[in-house]
Amino acid sequence: MQAELPRVLSAGGLTPTIHELLANRVELLPWEAAQGAAADSVAGIFSYGHDPVDELLLARLSNLRVISNHGVGVDHIDVEAARRRGIPVGNTPAILDAAVADMAMALLLAAARRLAEGDRFARTSGATEFDPSALHGRDVHGATLGIVGLGNIGYQIARRARGFDMRIVYHNRNRREAVERELAAEYLSLDDLLATADFLVLICPLSDSTRGLIGRRELAQMKPTATLVNIARGGVVDTGALTAALQERSIYAAALDVTDPEPLPADHPLLALDNVTLTPHLGSATVETRRRMAELAVDNLLAGLAGEEMKCRVV
Ligand code: DGY
Description:
The chain is α/β, with parallel strands linked by helices. The chain has two domains: 7-95 and 288-305, Rossmann fold (3-Layer(aba) Sandwich); 97-278, NAD(P)-binding Rossmann-like Domain (Rossmann fold). It is 33% helix and 15% strand. The chain starts with 6 loop residues before the first strand and ends in a 10-residue tail after the last helix. The structure holds (2R)-2,3-dihydroxypropanoic acid. (2R)-2,3-dihydroxypropanoic acid is lined by residues 71-73, 96, 283-284.
C-alpha cells in the first residue's frame, strides 16, 4: 500500500513539467481547498501565480510546514506572518537573473525602436513601400541607462547595456562599488537619476518603501525624451500618473512587463496609447529558465515537507 502523500495547496495552471516533478511525491489540492474541511491536512503551499498567501490563509492551515514560491518576488506572500509561525518560505533567485535582464533589454529596445508599432504597421495594407519618414525611434547606443535597484538582475542589465555602449547610472539602497568599478557605473540620488536617464529601468522589489515610488512628482522630473521600463512590479509605479504622463507626452514612452492592476482591464486608457509597449509578465518566461525554476521550487517544497533545509529560503 502506498504511504499517504503530503497534501499541497496550489493554484491551477501548473505546467506538465511541474506535474511530472511532483508526481507520486505530493497530492495537489486546489486553492479553494483552504476554505473547506481539507484545510487542516494541508502540509505545503506551492505558490505558482500571485495568489495572495496572507495571514488569513495561514491561520486556516494549522498543519502547514512549508511555502515554496515559483519565482523570486514574494510580495504576494505575507513573509512576516510565515516567519512568526515558523513556516519556511522558499523562492527561486539567481537562476532567472539572466532571462529577466534579457527581457529588460528587449523591452528597452522595443520601446526605443518602436518595435510593436512597426510590427502592427507592417501587417497593414498601408505598408506598401519603404518610407524613410516612418516610425523614427530613439538611439539606444550612447544613451544613459538609469537602473533603480542594482541587485543581481540590475547588475545583469547593466552588463548588457555596456554592450550597447550605454552610460550606466543607478540608484540602490546600498552603493555597489565593485560594480561601479567594473562597469563604470555611477551612483545617483533618485532625483538625479530621474533627471539624467534616457531609459529608466525599474528592477527593485515591491515593498512598503517602493510602492508608488514613481509617481507624478518623479515622472515630472524625467526628460521628455525618456522611456520608462518596468520589469519589477506594477505597484512600483503609480499607474494613473504614468498614464497621464504618456498621454501628455511629458515622457517619450513606456515598456511595461508588469502593471497595476495586472492584467489591465480591457478599457484601460494605457491600452489605447501607441507610446506604450506591453508584455504580460514574461520576465523569466523562457523554456530553459522556467524549467530551472520548476526544479528549484519543487526541490524547496520537498525539502520543507521533509523538514530539511531548502536550497533557497527567504525566511
Ligand atoms: C518573479 O520571479 O518574481 C516573477 O515576477 C514571477 O513571480
